[in-house]
Amino acid sequence: MEGSLAAQTQQPLRWHKAYFDAPEGDEPLALDMESMGKGQIWINGQSIGRYWTAYAHGDCSGCSYSGTFRPTKCQLGCGQPTQKWYHVPRSWLKPTQNLLVLFEELGGDPSKISLVKRSVSTVCAEISEYHPNIKNWQIESEGKTEEFHRPKVHLHCSPGQAISSIEFASFGTPLGTCGSYQQGPCHAPTSYDILEKRCVGKQRCAVTISNSNFGHDPCPNVLKRLSVEAVCAPMTSTTAQPGGN
Fold first, then answer.
1. MF terms per GO, please (predicted)?
2. Which fold has domain 14-117?
3. Thinking of the domain 122-133+149-234, which architecture would CATH place it in?
4. Which of 75, 115, 117, 148 can pair with 58 through a Cys bridge, CB separation 3.0 to 4.6 Å?
5. Closest CA to 107 of 197, 37, 19, 60
């Protein structure tokens, strides 16, 4: 971006402006505001909203939802900004000479602001077989006799994309996190087949977590979960539709 952004740094209560051309393509766009403090953003007179770069603190060393709930369980992004991406609708942009205006309250380095394309190549999901469900709570609290609702794992690619393959799938006790999943000591051999059948070729899908859905109980009397990593790719001749249960 060119303009006065690079000339004003580390000074609170300042106005900044810059002009930029719209990137080619149709991918979603976002402003990376990690280098700034607190303020507001406008593009071509339209308000993007307020930003406030705060950093998350805590312990991200491990994650387990078993046992009593505590707010410190399963923390993510320790030491990282709580938010740094701010969506920019393409419908607000002109091919050239788009005006970006900032009002900064705390200071920062506006020369490091960037406009980036968001391209999702993989999506992950993980859920346990006894994940809390508001419908089940209502059934139990009202003394109803209907069957409890099983939790579902949901995968969703960006508009214009569809799930092209399943990189990882394991119903049992998988290990690791998104991007580094591994099979644990308990694993249902049908996991890949079930996810591929329900999800490949679709923009979004949902798969119910149940022993019957995966053929059998791979490890009785053990709390199981389903971890999935899928690849998203541009749609070709496949029409994406919501997945089944």
1. beta-galactosidase activity; carbohydrate binding
2. Jelly Rolls (2.60.120)
3. Sandwich (2.60)
4. 75
5. 37
